[in-house]
Amino acid sequence: MRQGIGAGSHSESLADEPTPSVAGGSTLILLPTYDEIDNLRPLVAGILGALPAAHILVIDDTSPDGTGDLAEQLRCEHPGQVDVVHRPGKLGLGSAYLRGFQRALEAGYSRVVTMDADLSHAPRHLEALLLAAERADLVVGSRYIPGGCTVNWGIERKALSLMANVFARLALRLSVRDCTSGYRCYGVPLLRALDLDQIVADGYSFQIEMLWRSLAIGARVREVPIAFIERANGVSKISRDEIHKAVATVVGLRRMAAEEARGEPARQPTRFAASPAASPPHHGPELSILIVSYDTADLLEECLGSIFEHPPEVPFEVIVVDNGSPDDSAERVRRSFPRVRLLELPHNVGFARANNVALREAYGRALLLLNSDTRVFAGSLDGMLQALHANPSVGVVGCKQLDRERQLQLTWGRFPSFFNEVMRKVLHWRLRIDGMQVREYLDRKYHASSRVDWVSGSCLLARREAIEEAGLLDENIFLYFEDIDWCRRIQQCGWGIQYEPGVRIIHYGGESAKRHLIDALVAYRRSQFYFCRKYFGRAALLVLKALVGVKSLLASIRHGAGWLAAGSDREARFRSYCMLLTLKKILQTLFESVPQGPPAATVLGRQSEPMESLEPAVAEAREAR
Questions:
Q1: Residues forming a β-bridge with 412
Q2: pLDDT at 598 exceeding the cut of 60
Q3: 426 or 523: which carries more pLDDT confidence?
Q4: What does the pLDDT read at residue 267?
Q5: Which of 154, 348, 401, 429 could join 507 via S-S bond, C-beta 3.0 to 4.6 A?
Q6: Which of 299, 297, 337 is nearest to 319 (CA)?
Q7: CA–CA separation, 66 vs 380, rounded Å?
Q8: Where would I find the beta strands (DSSP E) of 403-477?
Q9: Backbone phi, psi, residue 290, to 5°
Q10: How do strand 496-507 and strand 374-376 relate by DSSP bridges?
């Protein structure tokens, strides 16, 4: 354990070590170097070209090739913008960054950017990192989110990097996709809040430990896509010894996390630097409750009745979007709940698009998506709001949902992998364990507030700021998967997703889908194909379609034989006919084109011109207001 930032048995000399006078909002860029004489000059030129006002600190470990001397030349060429720290030997990447953090804290900088000095981190991405840093405490330049990539990497290097990231994410339960990236922007308030004396990693695993410790104290971490370019000059510093040390570091952090969890099971990270001035004054209701209803009149009445029977203690509004229901849902709302703002759509536009209509019209600071087949208890709404307000780094809160028999529903989880999606939802492979045992195990495991990757859209409370950053629900998804996709995008913007088991509601589950089962099953496959294409790529989509096609063909043969064997049993023939019709429609979806990206209308806020087909309902609601 270090005794101080940058402390150790070695002495350091700081060239002319003046403390620069910096204005608020200034940025310090740290460049640890060892034998980078061919890369340093073009890198410095690129940085100052991208950020003319930036300050650069080169931390050289007495490079044999003369990199330190070149850094001195650059300091003379760019006085006041380039500075150099000379260290007496190769002391490691982690200690170099800690030395730079110390300089930033002493000099009053507001942001610190860390970069590799081998030109693998392109300066053109600096603007994106700093822009994202305005709404995050730590920004990670990521190779492994949409838009990110690696250039000129061999298969072995790609495999090594991916395995390292998967190992770190699984072992430490990290939500960030690129845990080992060194291209980062730290807010100085985060560096002040972290106990840097406790950092144990010194090599490339330093990046993993800094990320883990930042998330542990509630920092908002955001990823932006970058292109990582393999170095053209010099030799990579990654060795087998570094890999072994990284594995040991992750194992040590995992053990540390387990010890902390045993000592304080209900421990919740607190936001370290929430400034009251960061939130603009809010005029209007604190909570907007948004309910999309399709052909569930009785359940909708029960849901609204429970809300007004157990209202939150804060000002709130309720918006119901009737999604072209064939029943009398809209009339019942008008008659029985005059406080509710009702938007009637001419036809069923899908769950995501209908919710977006409500989101654009809502005024609340917090926005609750609530299914029409739910029922809230006393304190349910206040409990979710309290969980959201108590954790400023949390963007979405979900709660415990129970079915009719008061049994736990699985309405939260980890982001699905392609393998799990195929095994569980196509091949229907399951562990041979009774479902009740699984639910009891998960209920015990998630007995306290927990960070997860997604919560169900049947009861999802979102912070307005998180929606403004991530955008609205993806309208390419008609039904199913929209909540997982939304949580994923919110999480990628640096917000946490929290499951709150202390808050409960009743969720009957799938009541609208049961009335339109064939359409729901077909919509599920369409959404699954789109989700697969969006997150796993075109090759994965082709594999998924092939498996669904083979499964559907085999099922068609089986149900066709059942239809023939049913003889005069009209009920059995009808069941087989319905299955064959469903399978036919699913097979037709295999030949439909799958959209490649989200639609343009994903911004929170009232549109100057609503969607044409929905304009009368939206305009009527605005006039009523």
A1: 455
A2: no
A3: 523
A4: 36
A5: 401
A6: 337
A7: 65
A8: 412-413, 450-452, 454-455, 459-463
A9: -115, 120
A10: antiparallel
Highest mean pLDDT among 82-96, 444-458, 506-520, 593-607: 82-96
Angle at 213 between CA 209 and CA 215, to 5 degrees: 120
The position carrying tokens 């609204």 is 304
CATH number of 13-263: 2.60.40.2470, 3.30.420.40, 3.90.550.10, 3.30.43.10? 3.90.550.10
CATH 3.90.550.10 region(s) of the chain?
Answer: 13-263, 282-515+600-624
φ, ψ for residue 159, nearest 5 deg:
-65, -40
CA atoms within 13 A on the CB side of 403: 11
CA distances from 79 to 66, 84, 388, 462 (A): 20, 11, 47, 48
pLDDT band at 236 (very low <50, low <70, confident <90, very high): low
Per the structure block, which two tokens stand in for 77?
């060429």
Structure tokens at 100: 């730079």
Cα–Cα distance measured from residue 506 to residue 407, given in angstroms and rounded to the nearest whole number? 10
C-alpha 473/C-alpha 132 separation (Å) is 21
Q: Which letter does DSSP use for residue 121 in this model? A: B
Residue of higher predicted confidence among 580 and 299? 299
- The answer to whether residue 170 scores a pLDDT higher than 50 is yes
Tokens of 456: 């169900």
CA 378 to chain centre: 30
Phi, psi values for residue 151, rounded to 5° = -120, 130
pLDDT > 90: percent of the chain: 40
Sheet with 184-187, side-by-side order of all strands: 13-14, 82-86, 55-60, 27-33, 111-114, 184-187, 138-142, 221-225
pLDDT of residue 61: 92
Token pair listed for 247: 């594995």
Number of neighbouring beta carbons within 10 Å of residue 438: 14
Q: Say how far apart CA 65 and CA 420 lie, in whole Å.
A: 50
| DSSP summary character for residue 269 | -
Which superfamily, per CATH, for 282-515+600-624? Spore Coat Polysaccharide Biosynthesis Protein SpsA; Chain A (3.90.550.10)
> 5 and 101 in contact (C-beta within 8 Å)?
yes
Give how far the C-alpha of residue 103 lies from the chain's centroid of Cα atoms, to the nearest Å.
32
More confident residue, 471 or 416: 471
Q: Per-residue confidence at 5, pLDDT binned at 50, 70, 90?
A: very low
Measured between alpha carbons, how far is 610 from 592 in angstroms, rounded to an integer? Answer: 28
Q: 621 near 334, Cβ under 8 Å?
A: no
**Residue at 197: amino acid letter:** D
Beta bridge partners of 402: 408, 506
- The pLDDT of 454-481, averaged and rounded, is 90
The whole-angstrom separation of Cα 29 and Cα 100 is 9
User: Tokens in use for 625?
Assistant: 């207001």
Amino acid at 535: Y
Burial of 545 (C-beta count, 10 Å sphere; 0-12/13-18/19+): buried
The span from the CA of 410 to the CA of 401, in Å, is 8
User: Amino acid identity, residue 301?
Assistant: E
β-bridge mates for residue 225, sequence order: 142
**Interacting residues of 16 by C-beta distance below 8 A, sequence separation 6+:** 83
Nearest alpha-carbon partner for 210 in 187, 240, 239, 179 = 179
Q: Are 624 and 341 in contact (CB under 8 A)?
A: yes
Q: CB neighbours (10 Å) of residue 212?
A: 23
- CA–CA distance, 442 with 266 (Å, rounded to integer): 16
Cα 519–chain centre separation? 30
Place of tokens 């609530």: 370
